[in-house]
Specification:
Order of helices and strands: EEEHHHEEHEHEEE
Number of strands: 9
Number of helices: 5
Helix content: 25-40%
Largest sheet: 5 strands, mixed
Strand order of the largest sheet: 7-6-8-1-9
């Protein structure tokens, strides 16, 4: 029996924002999204504590690093977000306008991080499994019962009757369980095939039957009356 498992793959491209120099030069790449979120998070901490030095202490960054992030964010939005007052800062009207969206971004970032953590620890999510009837009916149930006991928050979806993985969209399933002899040609690169269990088929005959006296008999070459 063979198990097809979906592997994790990093996206080859996507959309995020990188600020380069001025607000009319915006480039897109996944790897710069955390940087942009850091700009808004820095702005929010400075706004809430009213001081660059206090924000630097909270964020464990130097004051020049905090000031640079604020400057880059100011260049991105195209208008001043704050001005200095004594040793602190005060938001401009534009800064006040961006305060609520910055808080929503922080909440979304926390929600995203919490979700990633819960899914990695199998505290939530859906596990979709497709298998042949034999595997689904006779081999998987004991493992699924144990999985349900260990991870009750994960939803299990099982589909039996699979005979050829190529007839299904692999992206819709996390695991395929197939029996020996199923062709594996053309398997997408984000899946890996690995042996799971070995099984044997036993022929049972009445005591004294002619076939029972021949342990090396190849039944596939003999006619059988059913």
């Amino acid at each position: 029996m063979v198990a097809l498992k979906k592997s994790r793959a990093e996206p080859s491209n996507g959309e995020a924002i990188e600020l380069i120099g001025s607000n009319d030069r915006i480039y897109r790449s996944w790897r710069y999204l955390p940087l942009l979120l850091n700009y808004f998070e820095t702005f929010l901490v400075v706004a809430e504590c009213g001081s660059v030095s206090k924000a630097a202490h909270i964020l464990h960054r130097s004051q020049p690093a905090i000031s640079e992030r604020l400057q880059r964010l100011t260049e991105l939005v195209g208008e001043p977000l704050y001005y200095g007052v004594g040793r602190g800062v005060r938001l401009t009207a534009a800064g006040e306008a961006y305060l609520a969206p910055a808080r929503r971004l922080r909440d979304l970032k926390r929600e995203w991080s919490d979700m990633v953590q819960r899914r990695r620890q199998l505290q939530e999510g859906v596990l979709k499994i497709a298998a042949t009837n034999t595997v689904a009916n006779y081999f998987l149930p004991q493992y699924l019962v144990r999985f349900r006991q260990d991870y009750p928050e994960v939803e299990l979806q099982l589909r039996g009757g699979i005979t050829d993985w190529s007839q299904y969209s692999l992206l819709d399933w996390d695991l395929f369980f197939l029996e020996e002899g199923t062709p594996m040609t053309g398997l997408p690169p984000h899946y890996a095939a690995s042996p799971w269990l070995e099984d044997e088929i036993l022929a049972i005959f009445p005591r004294g039957h002619a076939f029972a006296e021949k342990p090396n008999l190849d039944l596939l070459t003999r006619p059988l009356n059913i």
